[in-house]
């Protein structure tokens, strides 16, 4: 796990954008994994800027989103599929149909989960998965207690997550759906490179549990410790509870130039 403590959230976003651009330059047909929430928004803005500057094309790429609410009306502005459309897809050149998400409207949600797994596998798997981090240590919507080997399935959202996400629903946690269809921790672990962005002091305890705590379903993100290629991009406040933060900073300072994330 490489922990990078950046001066500002903007720096974290630019480093993540560098990794995405480098990947697409090496192989334009790469498969991206896209996250929602506020943490990746600066990354998506950086990618849109670079696309407009002619520095990156998504014209042969594909993408899979991490999760989706169950129970929102089709096309609801806060459905994760719509968020990704609005925040990234509409502003770059993905081919039609190249971005897909779990089908939160399926009649048979268990089957939709299995179909989503198959779609990811037949696309060759995810090359670079963008991740945020829930305040309770969740990734995607894998809440505490999630199996570390879980695949895409229906999950119930915790009270904490519904209240964290109430800001997207007029401040009312009751308006936040209580169910979702989410990639599992096993699904996420299959991606070849995981890039997690967490900024702000409110994330500090979850960051510390993820990076330095025991691997435990109580902090689902701690499973990333078992993955061979994880980059954790933080700002100072998000890194503030890390015991070894000086060591992470020192390792980053001597990293050979041009190695990438
Ligand atoms: C949401 C999403 C996650 C996201 C997390 C953090 O509930 N399902 O994918 O990473 O919560 O969100 P934010 O980045 O807004 O803090």
Structural summary, described in words:
Helix 1 crosses helix 2 (41-52). The strands form 2 sheets. The protein has a 7-stranded parallel β-sheet. The chain contains 8 helices and 10 strands. It has one domain: Rossmann fold. It is an alpha/beta fold and 261 residues long. 31% of the residues lie in helices and 16% in strands. It is globular and about 55 Å long. Helix 7 (204-212) links the parallel strand 9 (193-198) and strand 10. The structure holds 2-amino-2-deoxy-6-O-phosphono-alpha-D-glucopyranose (GLP). Residues 35-39, 66-67, 132-134, 140-141, 161, 165 line the site of 2-amino-2-deoxy-6-O-phosphono-alpha-D-glucopyranose.
Radius of gyration: 17 Å
N-end to C-end Cα span: 11 Å
Uncertain regions spanning at least 5 consecutive residues: none
Shape: globular
Largest beta-sheet characterization: 7 strands, parallel
What features would you highlight for this structure?
single chain; 261 residues; Rossmann fold; seven-stranded parallel sheet; three-stranded antiparallel sheet; 31% helix
């Amino acid at each position: 796990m490489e922990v990078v403590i950046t001066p500002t959230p903007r720096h974290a976003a630019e480093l993540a954008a560098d990794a995405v651009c480098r990947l697409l330059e090496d192989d334009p047909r790469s498969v991206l994994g896209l996250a929602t929430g506020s943490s990746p928004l600066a990354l998506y803005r950086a990618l849109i800027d670079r696309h407009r500057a002619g520095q990156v094309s998504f014209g042969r790429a594909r993408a899979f989103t991490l999760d989706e609410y169950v129970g929102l009306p089709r096309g609801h502005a806060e459905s994760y599929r719509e968020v990704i459309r609005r925040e990234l897809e509409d502003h770059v050149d993905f081919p039609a149909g190249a971005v897909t998400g779990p089908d939160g409207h399926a009649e048979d949600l268990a089957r939709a989960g299995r179909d989503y797994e198959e779609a990811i596998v037949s696309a060759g798997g995810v090359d670079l998965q963008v991740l945020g981090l829930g305040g309770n240590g969740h990734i995607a919507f894998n809440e505490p207690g999630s199996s570390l080997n879980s695949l895409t399935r229906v999950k119930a959202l915790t009270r904490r997550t519904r209240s964290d996400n109430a800001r997207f629903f007029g401040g009312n946690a009751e308006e936040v759906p209580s169910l979702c269809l989410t990639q599992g921790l096993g699904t996420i672990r299959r991606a070849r490179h995981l890039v997690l962005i967490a900024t702000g002091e409110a994330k500090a305890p979850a960051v510390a549990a993820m990076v330095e705590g025991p691997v435990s379903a109580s902090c689902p993100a701690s499973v990333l410790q078992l993955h061979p290629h994880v980059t954790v991009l933080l700002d100072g406040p998000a890194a503030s509870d890390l015991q070894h933060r000086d060591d992470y900073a020192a390792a980053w300072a001597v990293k050979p130039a041009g190695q990438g994330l």
